[in-house]
Design goal:
single chain, alpha+beta, Immunoglobulin-like, Serine Threonine Protein Phosphatase 5, Tetratricopeptide repeat, 4 domains, 20 strands, globular, disordered N terminus, disordered C terminus
Length: about 625
């Protein structure tokens, strides 16, 4: 990030870049509560948005200990420049970074952004501003802002921070940590220990300072002293910041999900939850289906992703005992989805605007589907129909369960012709299911007076679906080299990819905690059973990103496979998931007989579509229809 020193902050106008400035910030020394004006000049050298029709300024306000905040604002064209202004309303911000976005592209100063330190009443950087910049300088990727690491600049910033604010203990301990890495050895350690001792003597009654200094005791081989200090404070102040630190560490170190949820309940009861930590506790509750704990939590800390409202609502609805509460929670989640054209939280910072809009639309559809399902279970089919129709539109008919529910609503509401139209179009898209077919039969027989001709219609839909899918796959086919590997199989053998040349190979990356992965496995098992005896096809599932200790991973996966009676081969991935550029799971790669990647499929769109798609992919790569016997 481009960094402004204190001296630069004294100028009336900030101009980033040279000659004709690309970005200009009009302010003498930005402060919390002040309005600033930002200009972006598309004529400048290096400008990304030279022909944009709309442009948005995205400001991220950095905090020291709490979650950072975000403001996205549409800019207006003023002559040759884009302009906007906003008030710095975040009282805890110490600095902010800017980037500029059109619908599909981002000008992020080649990843570094444009960063401005906030000033206090004295015109100097506020406490924490330079410390925060030092943290950024030590990382290659800081919440989507990517830059070259600069340790020397970080040290300079930390020293400047300490010169202005000697009690900035976090800056001091970070500086000591860097110095130990740069000059390891007893000489450096003794010097730091001496400085630490002097500071601790003065601050030993300041729990906030002591909490931060504890890491320095361990850094200088004084772990026993750190433990003694901790024990003293735990007894002296059992609800203080050191007790909170220890409780959080115990929670983070626990891998047993049931015990982890119990620890989460203890922590949130004893200590206030800091912004940005909500997800950690909610995830712990939801993994063991502690829905009531999750409901209580969001009642106290409501500012969490709508996804969590959906997970809680869906869980309650499907448990069946608190359906009305589940419906209420799902509706709250729907209402929390941003309805405008700007993002509101840093959770969404990693997505460009077009991706965010697409994902936001799908999220609305997904939560709407949960809401609609709950209304159906309450017998409110008219209300459910409206909710599911909107959900169907948002998800563009791509969710088989949603399609089946909407078809059922149409049947329950005596709209059989609508059910027929919806069912046929869903089947053609490969987004059908046994549940949808049952509703289709009922609607078809009502509209036509009998079931006669239904099998022919189903056959026609299947032919149309296969033809459309084949045409789509022809457009998606690629030719990229694969990465060879030798990985351990669940049966103890070693599998080497290069020894499988001559076969079409499927590599399916998955984990036991991944919902879409697990949803796809019944269909994957069908495909495996269909092709396991075919010498030209090899299906391998690549277990990765497991959330259990490495020593427990193999047994954890074996237990999962045995419990679910899955028999397809499993390999234990090490770092292949990164070499193949996997961003999320499930992700499948289909390799041809020469070991080239020809298809990449991300996510799970329904069992019927997946089964037909893999059959067609095999057929295309083998050059002829593959026997399915």
């Amino acid at each position: 990030m481009k960094y402004l020193s204190y001296f630069v902050l004294l100028f009336l106008v900030f101009s980033f870049a040279s000659a004709q400035s690309l970005v200009t910030i009009q302010s003498s020394s930005p402060k919390s509560g002040e309005r600033i004006t930002v200009a972006y000049d598309p004529r400048s050298a290096g400008a990304v948005h030279t022909n944009a029709t709309t442009l948005y300024a995205v400001a991220v306000f950095w905090h020291i200990e709490e979650r950072s905040t975000m403001l996205e604002q549409k800019m207006e064209r003023s002559g040759d420049q884009w302009m906007t202004s906003f008030v710095i309303e975040d009282p805890k911000a110490v600095s902010f970074s800017l980037r500029f976005e059109s619908e599909d592209s981002i000008d992020n100063n080649q990843g570094a952004g444009w960063t401005i330190l906030l000033s206090g009443k004295n015109g100097k950087p506020v406490k924490g501003a330079q410390f925060m910049q030092a943290i950024m300088r030590l990382q290659k990727d800081f919440m989507g802002f990517i830059r070259q690491q600069d340790t020397l600049m970080a040290i300079s910033l930390l020293r400047a921070e300490l010169a202005a604010y000697p009690d900035q203990w976090s800056a001091r301990t970070l500086l000591w940590s860097i110095e130990m890495k740069q000059s390891p050895g007893e000489k450096t350690k003794k010097r730091i220990a001496k400085e630490l001792d002097a500071i601790y003597t003065k601050q030993k009654n300041n729990e906030e300072a002591v909490r931060t200094l504890l890491s320095a005791f361990r850094l200088t081989d004084q772990s026993k002293k750190a433990e003694t200090i901790e024990a003293t404070w735990l007894k002296k102040n059992p609800t203080g910041v050191i007790a909170e630190m220890k409780a959080l560490q115990k929670f983070r170190d626990e891998h047993d999900q049931t015990k982890r949820a119990a620890l989460a309940a203890q922590v949130v009861e004893q200590f206030p939850v800091k912004p940005g930590m909500e997800q950690m506790f909610l995830s712990a509750f939801l993994r063991v289906k502690e829905y009531q704990q999750a409901v209580t939590f969001i009642g106290k800390y409501p500012d969490v992703s709508p996804n969590f409202y959906n997970s809680i609502g869906y869980g309650l609805i499907n448990e069946g005992e608190q359906i009305a509460l589940g419906v209420s929670i799902a509706k709250q989640g729907l209402d929390r989805i941003p309805a405008g054209d700007v993002r509101t939280t840093v959770d969404l910072l990693g997505q460009n605007r077009s991706s965010w809009k697409e994902n936001n639309q799908y999220l609305r559809g997904m939560i709407g589907d949960s809401y609609g399902e709950g209304l159906m279970k309450l017998g409110k089919y008219s209300e459910a129909e409206s909710a599911l129709e909107e959900s169907h539109t948002m998800m563009q008919g791509d969710d088989p369960d949603n399609n089946a529910r909407l078809a059922e609503c149409y049947v329950k509401n005596n709209k059989h012709a609508k059910a027929v139209t919806l069912s046929y179009s869903s089947l053609v898209k490969g987004k059908g299911s046994p549940q949808l077919i049952e509703q289709y039969k009922t609607a078809y027989s009502t509209v036509n007076g009998s079931i006669v001709g239904f099998d022919s219609v189903m056959n026609a839909a299947n032919i149309e679906m296969r033809n459309e899918l084949r045409a789509k796959l022809k457009k998606e086919i690629v030719e990229k080299p694969s990465v060879d590997f030798e990985l351990k199989s669940i049966d103890g053998s070693i599998v080497k990819l290069s020894e499988l040349k001559g076969k079409v190979v499927v590599l399916d990356f998955w984990a036991t905690w991944c919902g879409p992965c697990l949803a796809s496995f019944p269909s994957l098992q069908k495909i495996y059973d269909r092709y396991k005896d075919n010498p030209d096809v090899m299906i391998l599932t690549m277990n990765t990103w497991e959330r259990v200790p490495p020593t427990e991973r193999e047994q954890h996966v074996k237990t999962f496979m045995e419990k679910n009676k899955y028999t397809f081969p499993v390999l234990f991935d090490t770092d292949l998931v990164f070499q193949y550029g996997v961003d999320g799971i499930p992700t499948k790669f289909i390799l041809d007989k020469n070991g080239m990647i020809r298809f990449k499929d991300i996510g799970f769109g329904g069992g019927e579509e997946m089964e037909v798609k893999m059959e067609l992919q095999f057929e295309m790569l083998l050059g002829a229809a593959v026997s399915t016997k």
